[in-house]
């Protein structure tokens, strides 16, 4: 393994960096502030919620350079390998002139106390690199992961609109070819490794190398987007080791569609999967936009959400309702099972030591099947779910040929409402039968009370979501969605 290993290599701005003897638990935020003394990047929450720590990563995409905003407080420094890291200190030109996103913040009075401003600027910078003029919906999506207690957001949204008025390629776009060449020069096809104080970090490049590493280190922490694992370090103060990063495994970064399945690799991010998912299941795509900010979606993966096995993970309920399957590998042995069978108990999955999630197989959209999912949380955007319900229904001549109902947050694992399903199958899809199923649902779930919701609230919500699903499938003119109303209001504005 040693002859195949090399340091972590990346560009900080335009300067090459190589790291080897550094604690693998080091976050990008702490590296920037403590090692590089770049203190423009702030720590607000330390858990990827507030956006004060936002930085931008540049990655090679074919022969292009793709920029994306991420939370540096929960990204580990090893994940910088092969990328360009940009901070607020990089944006002004050598002569001191401000980048258009910075100048727009000045002109629109988008900063007051200033603590959150560098994070907003970096989120705006990533938005600036996208083609075209963003509309209000796109601006809201891009800024939803940045919190400000001073401005009321109006001036910042105005800055997002103003920064591209009459815009032309900035100096970063003009240098894109040069940066792509420099990043490609960092990649020799070998595995990046970090080691310090007895802790090690590996970034294998192939599924075979990953399988071998996990046989050698069956107790390793498997790292994908870090949106949950990062909190183990920043909030639980755990020191992990060894860490095996799957974000460079080519086979796990693929997404493909055939006549039966959408195959999503375990290292595919939410952002990368969004357009494919939206083409088949718009409801899942709307839920994905709410489950985390753009910074979170740019890093987090559906495979990681599944492998982590949280009962309030947002991806599993709709995937289970659709009959999705998970693919696992240990050494040279693959196996495939229904996703609902992967979850055994709270914090326990059907995954052996040394085994990893290869990907998830989602059935392609069937015109006869209606899929809806509903996320209930205290905040509309980027909040942890109290309850998430997913419903997949097939009707034939007004009767229920098949229905699958799955909830997260209602049990120690994502769980189907099998008794409610049985009460509806073969019956007329009408209010009377739906009401019977609602009351039977109380036999499917025994939810708990916690800081997010009481048990009674969760059960009432679950029953009401089935009623809402019935209304949406029988009264298409009914106005039931906040997302639709918000988008319509923005369009009018």
- Structural class, from secondary structure content? alpha+beta
Give the overall shape, derived from the CA principal axes: globular
For the termini, the CA-CA separation is: 59 Å
For the record, the CATH architecture of one domain stands as Roll
Taking all residues together, what is the mean pLDDT?
A: 94
CATH fold descriptor of one domain: Ubiquitin-like (UB roll)
Q: Identify the strand order in the major beta sheet.
A: 1-7-8-10-9
Unreliable residue stretches: 488-493
What is the helical fraction, as a range of percent? 25-40%
How many individual β-strands?
21
CATH class division of one domain: Alpha Beta
Topology:
Elements: E1 5-6, E2 8-12, E3 15-19, H1 28-35, E4 54-61, E5 64-71, E6 84-86, H2 100-107, H3 117-128, H4 136-143, H5 154-162, H6 171-174, H7 176-186, E7 191-196, E8 199-203, H8 207-216, E9 221-223, H9 229-234, E10 243-245, E11 255-257, E12 261-265, H10 270-280, H11 282-291, H12 294-299, H13 302-308, H14 316-321, E13 325-330, E14 333-338, H15 339-342, E15 343-345, E16 348-349, E17 356-363, E18 369-376, E19 387-396, E20 399-408, E21 415-416, H16 418-424, H17 431-440, H18 455-474, H19 482-492
Parallel strand pairs: 1-7, 2-6, 8-10, 9-10
Antiparallel strand pairs: 2-3, 4-5, 4-6, 7-8, 11-12, 12-17, 13-14, 13-17, 15-16, 18-19, 19-20, 20-21
Helix pairs in contact: 2-3, 2-5, 10-11, 16-17, 17-18
């Amino acid at each position: 393994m040693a002859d195949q290993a090399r340091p972590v290599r990346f560009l900080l701005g335009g300067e090459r960096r190589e790291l080897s003897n550094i604690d693998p638990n080091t976050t990008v935020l702490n590296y920037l502030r403590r090692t590089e003394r770049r203190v423009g990047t702030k720590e607000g929450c330390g858990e990827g919620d507030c956006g004060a720590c936002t930085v931008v990563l540049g990655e090679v995409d074919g022969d292009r350079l793709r920029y994306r905003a991420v939370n540096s407080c929960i990204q580990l420094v090893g994940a910088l390998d092969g990328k360009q890291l940009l901070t607020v200190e990089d944006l002004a030109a050598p002569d001191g002139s401000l980048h258009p996103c910075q100048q727009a913040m000045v002109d629109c009075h988008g900063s007051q106390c200033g603590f959150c401003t560098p994070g907003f600027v970096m989120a705006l910078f990533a938005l600036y690199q996208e083609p075209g003029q963003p509309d209000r919906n796109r601006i809201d999506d891009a800024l939803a992961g940045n919190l400000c207690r001073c401005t009321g957001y109006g001036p910042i949204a105005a800055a997002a609109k103003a920064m591209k008025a009459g815009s032309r390629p900035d100096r970063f776009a003009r240098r894109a070819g040069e940066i792509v060449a420099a990043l490609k020069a960092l990649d020799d096809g070998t595995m990046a490794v970090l080691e310090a104080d007895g802790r090690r970090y590996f970034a294998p490049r192939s599924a075979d190398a990953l399988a071998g590493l996990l046989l050698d280190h069956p107790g390793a922490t498997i790292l994908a987007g870090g949106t949950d694992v990062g909190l183990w370090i920043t909030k639980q103060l755990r020191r992990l080791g060894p860490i095996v990063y799957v974000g460079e495994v080519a086979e796990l970064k693929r997404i493909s569609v055939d006549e039966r399945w959408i195959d999503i690799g375990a290292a595919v991010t939410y952002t990368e999967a969004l357009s494919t998912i939206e083409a088949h299941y718009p409801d899942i795509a709307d839920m994905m936009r709410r489950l985390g900010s753009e910074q979170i979606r740019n890093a987090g993966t559906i495979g990681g959400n599944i492998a982590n096995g949280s009962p309030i993970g947002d991806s599993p309920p709709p995937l289970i309702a659709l009959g999705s399957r998970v693919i696992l590998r240990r050494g040279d042995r693959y196996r495939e099972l229904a996703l609902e069978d992967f979850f055994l108990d709270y914090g326990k999955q059907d995954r052996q030591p040394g085994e990893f999630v290869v990907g998830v197989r989602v059935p392609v959209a069937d015109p006869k099947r209606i899929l809806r999912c509903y996320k209930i949380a205290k905040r509309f955007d980027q909040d942890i779910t109290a309850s998430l319900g997913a419903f997949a229904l097939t009707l034939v001549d007004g009767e229920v040929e098949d229905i699958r109902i799955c909830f997260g947050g209602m049990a120690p694992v994502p769980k189907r409402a099998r008794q409610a399903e049985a009460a509806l199958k073969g019956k007329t899809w009408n209010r009377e039968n739906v009401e019977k199923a609602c009351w039977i649902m109380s036999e499917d779930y025994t939810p708990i009370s916690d800081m997010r919701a009481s048990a009674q609230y969760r059960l009432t919500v679950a029953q009401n979501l089935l009623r809402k699903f019935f209304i949406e499938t029988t009264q298409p003119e009914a106005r039931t969605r906040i997302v639709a109303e918000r988008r319509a209001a923005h369009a009018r504005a």
